[in-house]
Amino acid sequence: MNKLNIKEYKTKSGEVRYILRGAYIGTDVLTGKQVRTSITGRTKKDIKVKLSRLQNEFIKNGCTKKIKVLKTFDEVAAAWFDFYKINRKSATVKQTEKNLRLYLIPAFGKYKIDKLTTAILQHQINIWATIASKPLNGRQARKKGEMSDYKRLYTIINRIMKYAISNGLISSNPCLTVLMPNVKVESTKKEIKFFTKSQLQSLFDYLDNQASPQWKMRLLRNLLPFLG
């Protein structure tokens, strides 16, 4: 082994430490590039031991960088989202990111992907459906966290699970046996009412007999959105 260029340095507290910058681990057989890293230790011997261990692990891994294995739901969801947003409309990507951030990651993020069961998913879907079914009591908007489209959240989970299967992370999809609640969801959209044919005729008769031309034109312009 060539002589290692191990340097001594001091920490902020004044302790002596050693560092080997650009330590050669091996040459990646897939890329042909050298794999190097920096190694620190309390002694020069520590650095030599760590370097030997890294080189042995590199050889055991087939002389290539070890690819990080996705384990938790949030890790898999992030990888799936990178794939999903390719060639998608920006509005769709933004809404999906919002659903992940506000609902799916808080609910399942720290679960190991292979530990998510139908029972866990079913419980959360039931909670979202119950929230979605609550009356608005005159409100024209839902509060943060009150997702109405719980079926859309299920669709995203299902896609993430399919992605996990395709990457060999799980062998079966727990979404397939989830039972979808069927609840009535009150719409936040205002119903636009239009004049009937007889109401329009009465209005025009009145305008012809009573209104000045200027006032008549102004009123008609304001009524245009409701002339269905």
Explain this structure.
The chain has three domains: 7-60; 73-177, DNA polymerase, domain 1 (Orthogonal Bundle); 197-226, no CATH class. Strands 1-2-3 form a three-stranded antiparallel β-sheet, covered by helices on one side. By secondary structure, it is mainly alpha-helical. It is elongated, with a radius of gyration of 32 Å. The longest helix is centred in the middle third of the chain and has 19 residues, at 90-108. It is built from seven helices and three strands, in the order βββααααααα.
Give me some keywords for this one.
228 residues; 3-stranded antiparallel sheet; mainly alpha; 11% strand; 7 helices; 3 domains; DNA polymerase, domain 1
- Name the CATH architecture of the largest domain: Orthogonal Bundle
Summed over residues and divided by their number, the pLDDT gives a mean of 84
Compute the CA-based radius of gyration: 32 Å
What's the shape? elongated
> What is the terminal separation in angstroms?
86 Å
Content-based structural category: mainly alpha
**What's the CATH topology label of the largest domain?**
DNA polymerase, domain 1
Tell me the name of the CATH homologous superfamily of the largest domain. Tyrosine recombinase, N-terminal domain
The strand count comes to: 3
**Discrete helix count:** 7
Ranges where pLDDT stays below 50 over 5 or more residues in a row are: none
Write down the secondary-structure element order.
EEEHHHHHHH
Within the largest sheet, what's the order of strands? 1-2-3
Integer count of domains: 3
Q: Specify the helix fraction band.
A: 40-55%
CATH class of the largest domain: Mainly Alpha
Q: Strand share of the residues? A: 5-15%
Give the biggest beta sheet: 3 strands, antiparallel
